[in-house]
Amino acid sequence: MNDDHKSNGNAPICLGETPRGFSGMIEAIVVTGDHNGVPAAEIERRLLELGFVEGARVEVLHEGPIASDPIAVRVDNNTIALRRREAMSIFVA
Amino acid sequence: MASITEIRSWRFALVGTPNSGKTALFNALTGSRQKVANYPGVTVERKTGTFQTLSGHRIDLFDLPGTYSLRGRSPDEEVTRDVVLGRFATETQPDLLLCVADATNLRVALRLVTELKRAGRPMLLVLNMIDIARRRGIEIDLAKLEGELGIPVVTSTAVRRGGTEELLRRLDDLASHGAGEASENRWSAPTAADLRAAQREADRVIKAAVSEPARPDTLTGRVDAVLLHPVAGLIILLAVLFVMFQGVFAWAQPLMDLISGGFDALGTLVHDMLPDGLLQSFIQKGVIAGVGSVIVFLPQIMILFLFILLLEDLGYMARAAFLMDRIMGGAGLHGRAFIPLLSSFACAIPGIMATRVIDNRRDRLTTIMVAPLMTCSARIPVYTLIIGAFVPDRTVWGIVGLQGLVMFGLYAIGIFSALAASFVANHFFWRESATPPFMLELPDYKLPQLRSVAMALYARVMMFLKRAGTTIFSMMVVIWFLASFPRPPAGATEPAIDYSLASIIGRWIEPALSPIGFNWQISVALIPGMAAREVSVASLGTIYAIGGGDEATAQIGQALAGNWSLATALAFLAWFIFAPQCASTLAVIRRETGGWRWMFITFFYMLALAYLAAFITFRIATALGWG
């Protein structure tokens, strides 16, 4: 099991790279480039609408069966499934 | 002078995020007084219902599609936006927005409330599922919440008897004293900065009014540890699908025997009561045998729909999408396409309509085009009949029925071809290798509500019976007519049907279909089968019954087993995996894609696949000596 990676002043990491069991806080949402035809600004707004906002607590609960993708992330009291590619835009610490 | 107690009618609309329990609340308030239609110009379901408040005011309630924002990213969400903002020319703007929020999950809901307030409509916030929130120790200070948000707040538990009393009292109050004044509409599509600000505002309100111990639903977590497990989860998903298909066959059988026995008895009764002749033949062989041969599949269709409705209400469908996302992604399909495709097992029409949740147009088109390849319930009659007549009823590997196994194989081929077709579409048509983002809320598990499942099942059953009573019935009359006229000349030596129009048409098409092993009887049965697949079965029944000139209607299966080779039967099955034999599906494709183009593309690619598959099957089977 992973311990909590609490905010410790380290450089933020991408949520898309964290293993199952990771828990932390969102530092920033930065979307670069478009995602298969969906512009960056739109991805950002979708993430925000689902509750991925700076300051929200996140925990990676489950991983998909192939290449550990997608992931199921608890955002405060809500569980959201998303692909690691989009989760790369969410910086956590 | 109008008094404040004057009875009048109001238009209220339910708005909320997906999974807020909005539809359960709609069912609780309106009961069976619901109407489902379409919004003009779009194919989004317009769900309305009426109820009376305690002092007799009539309320027309609209259940608007769930949305996270008024931005309107999909046709569904655009309807919500346009109704709320009063942009629909044909719809009056609602007098009051009932904003439904899951009380256990307020962050996202209150952000939506903040956005909705900008639209300037009078609002009431309904904290739904309050019982679950209380059980989890979430305390909400209603007075404070009202003060912070500036709108009235009321709690409810839609799924419990009496859980909406408080809400009904509040609605009666609002209906008696006025729902509040509308203010200026200041809504504009929120930017990322707007969304962040709205979320900050929502979080501030929550901090002020809600004491929320961080205690997530532990049961959902524990269940998900198994159901979303990379290995166990997939095995369970497959097992669920397998049980579903075995259930459709094993459990439905006694009921089906009962129904077919009933229609046989009815046919015999009519036969004995009427004098020999055209009328007797029409009623017994055309009407009773035809409609009966379709209605007999009602138990199977009910079981299939029941499974799908239960899985949906349980919250499992979103999990299935999660597990399947990458697997479907390999075929170029979106994880969200899983739900429409699974619904297509029941019927491609709701499946195609369910693709409206897919916001990307290409993904949506691909899903629509492959949805008819999923084995819909209308194929069940065809498959069951052929399998029953040609596959021996024995057990393999100790426990699995061979007939059930063949059925499962046919479903598997359907799924595989859908994946292959979308793979081809993505790589050669769209020239894309990856699919756009997949983001989906995984709601907490909930026990399905008997009442809402029963209501949805009832609606599906009525739809099927209506189809059997109209489309299928009229096709049966046509087929009976074609098979009975013209009458054979006096002193004819061949069976009567050989002189009929059906025979003439069938023999005319036969050359095109004989390379795939179809005789003229099949050729002619395929034509009315365009209206609906199951009609082909009924048509074959009528053609062979009239052709055979039997006293009572012969069992179709026996007639086929005596007339077809195994190779023809297999080719017939292969044909039906792919054949675009459903006018309603094609009509829905045209409507959903907004033009003829995609309908024709779907029709011709499926027809080509059907011909090819039947051809290959027939040739191989013949080579194996089954001809």
Characterization of the model:
- The complex is a heterodimer of chains A (93) and B (627).
- Chain A contains two helices and six strands.
- The relative contact order of chain A is 0.30.
- In chain A, a hairpin with a 2-residue loop joins strand 4 and strand 5.
- Chain A has one domain: Ferrous iron transport protein A (FeoA) (SH3 type barrels, Roll), CATH 2.30.30.90.
- In chain A, 15% of the residues lie in helices and 37% in strands.
- Chain A is α+β, with helices and mostly antiparallel strands.
- Chain B has a domain of 203 residues: P-loop containing nucleotide triphosphate hydrolases (Rossmann fold), CATH 3.40.50.
- Chain B is α/β, with parallel strands linked by helices.
- Chain B is 59% helix and 9% strand.
- In chain B, helix 12 packs antiparallel against helix 19 and helix 15 packs parallel to helix 25.
- Chain B has 26 helices and twelve strands.
- In chain B, 47% of the residues are buried.
- In chain B, the strands form three sheets. A seven-stranded mixed β-sheet of chain B has the order 2-3-4-1-5-6-8, sandwiched between helices. Chain B has a two-stranded antiparallel sheet with strand order 7-9.
- At the A-B interface, helix 1, strand 3, strand 4 and strand 5 of A face helix 3, helix 7, helix 8, helix 13 and strand 12 of B.
- Strand 5 of chain A pairs antiparallel with strand 12 of chain B, so a sheet runs across the interface.
Q: Which terms summarize this structure?
A:
heterodimer; A: 93 residues; alpha+beta; SH3 type barrels; six-stranded antiparallel beta sheet; 37% strand; B: 627 residues; alpha/beta; two-stranded antiparallel sheet
